[in-house]
Description:
mainly beta, disordered C terminus, 4-stranded mixed beta sheet
Amino acid sequence: MMYLGKTILNKEGTAYPMVDFLNIETSMEKAKLSLGYRSLLIQGNTIKGHEFHYSTCIEKSKMTSIGEIFNAKGVSVNTSIYQQKNVNCVVHSFLLGRTFCYS
Length: 103
C-alpha cells in the first residue's frame, strides 16, 4: 500500500514520490512495530490475514473505511480498510482476484 500512496517519508522526513493512487502518505519518521494476526469484517464477510509493518499511514483527505479490523483477541484495531476503484487496501491477503494490502 505504501507504493499506492502519494509519498513515503523516510525517518529524516524526506519525501519520496510514489504512484499517487491513494490519497495517503506513508511515514517512517516514528517507526513502531505493528505485528499480529488480524480478522477483517467487510460487508458481513470475515477475512483472515496478518499485519507486519513499522510505518504509519497519514490520510491527506478523509477516506472512508469499508470495514473493520480486529486483532487475534477480537479487539478492534485503529486501522482502516480503503477502497479506490476496484482495489481494496487492507491486511496482507488475497481474495477473489482483488489485491488486499495493509494500511
